[in-house]
């Protein structure tokens, strides 16, 4: 059972470490430290409630009744701790062709960039780990060295081999189902004997359909990069069948639902992983919180406002505000001291907190290098019924354009075979009903003619929805100092008075080339599949779709992937990076900033697994730091100590 | 259990030619009363009665939408959309103005359970996303075959009079949408979602595929 307390109650305790944020990274670190007996306070800005079964079901119902079933649709608005939402962005035709932005933003983010930052997160217990899909591919060794290998982006101070044991540990903590053999073929798993804790999630009929038509076919991208296509299973943090041979035949015991004793099952195919899995077969940070030891205190409705500086370069405390009513701006301030402070509040929130606290300023890199996986969608009608809207969001992908080849010239990309039809690109299947009925009127307000009803409607929808194929192509975006988060407390604050993130975002030439190549490859894949492409990025009635741009004379669009990264990237040089390889700030020996914000590059892998591996690695270092702080004082004089050397 | 009121029974009967689902299926959603109440609230009690009378006239027994006035046609679409998705849609501006309602013209889901009972999922033999899950691994199975149009017509009890008063093109028009390679007009498909906050009922329709646009 997960117990939460109030901010006021939490302020009365004393702690070895304070962790800001109860998402994946914060929860994993708190759990590891708690297990070793450290007194940890976890501050969650948003609401709790999903840790109880009734609260969780309430979120499921909230999702059911949402018109736009977007990632945040299962989680209610919270004025005290607002979240960015993909619904905040609208296209704006007035900017077209004049070099002005083609969008407006009306939400938590103040967006001032040339292009919209379409990525969201949710400030609630579990964070974005509640609405994530659960895709957990590892990064490839090349992804850590794009600067030295391909001449773009930034290198990591650690490599894939350093991270491998932590990847394995993260896969155990998250509960990953996957096909290790396939991942070895890709080169992302090097241990020849490694198994995932659970057997791979069974491939969908769409996977098999695509496999049959694509396997071994050759496709050339517009840069002349010729690849043989393979359809590969995706590792997922989702309950499947446990592998008895896992971990030297110790096996793996899947974790069940939180808040309902003795309830847990394998994925039953609700097909709603984003935003919520009704049976909790998808892994969430609640599972980790459920294992917190008694020495961990979890306070919800507690918004960190500043980290306070202490003596020397150390930080001494976290200032936060607690509230009783998310709709009211009334809140109360508290300060809690700690030996170590860990910011684990999301890349953008971490940056916002560091900026508001005026900490880690040496490099000037806080808030800079904001990244995402700009994702371009491609959609088509297959010649046959393929069975969309069944199973997890995607169970296989085409990984062949992720590594090597023309990566120097264009950003690499990972092609997901969607199991959810045209839902992301066109709002299907609901929009199918509207267009078949000719509902909603003409642009001049008039009622449309045409439309089908009755048996014809049912038959048309069956045929056209049942044949929907969609490719979601995530393109790597490399670190660029000009993509950044800033704050301006005098002008932009939220209801509680905290500074809102100001975003400057654009796509560099390398990414644009990648999006363009991805689009062209998608068209070729649809040809191989014998499907009719309906991919359409052109303006509609003069209004450019969100994320629209023209590259090489071709209309293209991208969406946010929800993979916010960068903002406090790691490196060896304190003058050009914010944290070290352990995610400890160069400037402050007891202040850590963890999460995707530390990543110097994101490759083409969904970043959660890498973030969790980094968090587990940092947890060990934090434990050592705390242990060192608790050592008995050395009574020998300094002079004696030096003599010995 | 109380008997189903006569007006609800009549509403469901009239919704068969709108939806292409038999009265049994419509009643089985458990939503008939709620949908009638919703339509009354959105359209107005008196106006809905007029519509249902007009609808009766226009169904012989399949619906010929051209027999309906513009506003009635939009009401017919809205009620069908409600059955298929559990949501009341955004109407054509002119129709909304003609109805003189005080309610905002926006799409809303009537209740969490109406979403779950949407009929759209059944058209392609699936389940509502996020509810009624079919079980581990079922997504790997070949999708179930879809019933041919004639079977749906039969099942709805809409076949017996077709030979009589209905003109020929009604049945041939149906054939065009049958699976198996016959052409589907792009405007019958949804177009790109230009922004995430545009409700499904207000999205543009598709344009011709790129291959055809280039040659045009």
Q: How would you sum up this structure in a few lines?
A:
The complex is a heterodimer of chains A (645) and B (216). Chain A is an alpha+beta fold. Chain A has 16 helices and 23 strands.
Q: How would you portray this structure in words?
A:
The complex is a heterodimer of chains A (645) and B (216). Chain A contains 16 helices and 23 strands. Chain A has 645 residues and is α+β, with helices and mostly antiparallel strands. In chain A, a hairpin with a 5-residue loop joins strand 6 (218-220) and strand 7. The N and C termini of chain A lie far apart (52 Å). Chain B has 216 residues and is mainly α. Chain B is built from 11 helices and 2 strands; from the N terminus they run αααααβαβααααα. Chain B is globular, with a radius of gyration of 18 Å.
């Amino acid at each position: 059972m997960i117990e939460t307390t109030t901010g006021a109650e939490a302020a009365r305790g004393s702690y070895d470490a304070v962790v800001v944020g109860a998402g994946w990274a914060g929860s994993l670190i708190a759990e590891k430290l708690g297990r070793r007996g450290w007194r940890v306070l976890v501050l969650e800005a948003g609401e709790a409630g999903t840790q109880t079964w009734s609260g969780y079901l309430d979120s499921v119902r909230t999702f059911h009744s949402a018109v736009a079933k977007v990632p945040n649709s299962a989680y209610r608005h919270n004025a005290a701790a607002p979240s960015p939402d993909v619904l905040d962005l609208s296209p704006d035709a007035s900017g077209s062709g004049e070099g002005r932005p083609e969008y407006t933003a009306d939400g938590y983010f103040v967006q001032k960039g040339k292009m919209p930052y379409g990525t969201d997160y949710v400030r609630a217990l579990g964070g974005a780990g509640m609405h994530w899909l659960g895709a957990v591919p590892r990064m490839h060794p090349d992804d850590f060295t794009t600067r030295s290998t391909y001449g773009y982006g930034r290198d990591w101070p650690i490599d894939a081999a350093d991270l491998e044991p932590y990847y394995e540990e993260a896969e155990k903590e998250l509960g990953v189902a996957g096909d290790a053999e396939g991942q070895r073929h890709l080169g992302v798993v090097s241990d020849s004997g490694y198994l995932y804790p659970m057997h791979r999630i069974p491939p969908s009929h769409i996977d098999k359909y695509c496999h049959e038509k694509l396997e071994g076919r050759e496709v050339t991208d517009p840069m002349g990069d010729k690849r043989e296509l393979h359809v590969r299973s995706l590792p997922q943090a989702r309950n499947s069948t446990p592998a008895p041979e896992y971990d030297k035949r110790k096996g793996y015991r899947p974790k069940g639902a939180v808040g309902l004793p003795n309830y847990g099952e394998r994925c039953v195919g609700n097909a709603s992983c984003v935003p919520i899995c009704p049976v909790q077969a998808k892994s969430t940070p609640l599972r980790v919180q459920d294992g917190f030891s008694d020495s961990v205190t979890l306070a919800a409705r507690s918004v960190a406002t500043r980290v306070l500086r202490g003596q020397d370069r150390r930080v001494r405390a976290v200032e936060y505000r607690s509230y009783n009513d998310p709709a009211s701006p009334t809140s109360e301030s508290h300060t809690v001291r700690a030996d170590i402070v860990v910011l684990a509040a999301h890349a953008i929130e971490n940056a916002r907190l560091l900026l508001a606290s005026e900490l880690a300023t040496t490099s000037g890199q806080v808030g800079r290098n904001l990244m995402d996986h700009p994702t371009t969608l491609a959609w088509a009608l297959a010649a046959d019924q393929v069975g969309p809207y069944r199973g997890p969001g995607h169970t296989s992908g085409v990984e062949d354009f992720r590594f090597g080849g023309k990566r120097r010239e264009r950003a690499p990309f990972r092609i997901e075979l969607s199991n959810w039809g045209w839902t992301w690109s066109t709002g299907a299947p609901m929009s199918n009903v509207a267009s078949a009925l000719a509902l909603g009127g003409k642009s001049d307000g008039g009622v449309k003619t045409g439309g089908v009803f009755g048996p014809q409607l049912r038959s048309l929808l069956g045929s056209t929805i049942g044949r929907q194929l969609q490719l979601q192509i995530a393109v790597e975006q490399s670190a660029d100092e000009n993509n950044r988060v800033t704050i301006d407390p005098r002008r932009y604050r939220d209801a509680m008075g905290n500074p809102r993130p100001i975003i400057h975002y654009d796509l560099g030439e390398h990414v644009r080339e990648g999006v363009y190549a991805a689009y062209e490859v998608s068209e070729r894949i649809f040809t191989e599949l014998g499907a009719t492409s309906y991919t359409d990025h052109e303006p509609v009635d003069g209004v450019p779709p969100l994320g629209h741009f023209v590259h090489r004379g071709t209309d293209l669009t991208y969406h946010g992937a929800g993979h916010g990264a960068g903002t406090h990237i790691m490196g060896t040089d304190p003058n050009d990076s914010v944290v070290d390889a352990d995610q400890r700030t160069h400037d402050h020996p007891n202040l850590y900033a963890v999460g995707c914000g530390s990543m110097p590059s994101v490759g083409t892998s969904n970043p959660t697994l890498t973030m969790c591996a980094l968090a587990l690695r940092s947890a060990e270092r934090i434990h050592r730091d705390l242990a060192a702080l608790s050592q008995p004082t050395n009574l020998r004089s300094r002079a004696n100590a030096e003599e010995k050397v | 259990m109380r008997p189903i009121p006569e007006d609800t029974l009549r509403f469901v009967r009239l919704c068969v030619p709108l939806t292409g689902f038999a009265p049994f299926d419509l009643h089985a959603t458990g939503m008939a009363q709620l949908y009638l109440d919703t339509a009354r609230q959105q359209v107005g009690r008196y106006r809905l009665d007029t519509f249902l009378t007009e609808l009766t006239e226009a169904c012989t027994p399949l619906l010929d939408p051209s027999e309906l006035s513009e506003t009635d046609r939009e009401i017919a679409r809205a009620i069908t959309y409600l059955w298929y998705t559990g949501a009341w849609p955004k109407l054509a501006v002119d129709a909304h103005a003609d109805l003189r309602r005080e309610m905002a013209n926006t799409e809303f889901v009537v209740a969490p359970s109406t979403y779950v009972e949407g009929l759209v999922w059944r058209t392609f033999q699936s389940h509502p996303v996020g509810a009624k899950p079919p079980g581990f691994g079922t997504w790997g199975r070949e999708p179930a075959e879809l019933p041919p149009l004639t079977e749906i017509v039969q099942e709805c009890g809409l076949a017996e009079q077709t030979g009589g008063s209905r003109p020929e093109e009604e049945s041939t028009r149906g054939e065009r949408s049958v699976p198996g390679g016959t052409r589907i007009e792009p405007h019958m498909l949804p177009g790109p979602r230009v922004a995430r906050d545009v409700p499904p009922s207000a999205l543009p329709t598709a344009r011709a595929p790129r291959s055809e646009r280039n040659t045009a």
